[in-house]
Amino acid sequence: MDETEFYRNLGVRIKYLREKAGLTQEKLAEKSGISLDYLGKIEVCINKPGLKTILKLANALKIEPYSIFKFK
Length: 72
Known about the structure:
The chain is mostly helical. It contains four helices and no strands. The protein has helices at residues 3-20, 25-32, 36-43, 51-61. Helix 2 (25-32) crosses helix 3 (36-43) and helix 2 (25-32) packs across helix 4 (51-61). The longest helix has 18 residues, at 3-20. It is globular and about 30 Å long. The two termini are 13 Å apart.
């Protein structure tokens, strides 16, 4: 898996987890303290989130951070 594929999978996974939690992009962005624009760009593999952002998203989703990386 190269870097592009990794971030593509990460965006797909975050979107899946967000939808599974019944959250809109707006609500997840608000709960995690990141901008709606940034979250949207993560989900479509334009932005590459760092560890702090991953932790914020995991906390907002009420999941363990490692589960974000369980790509299918």
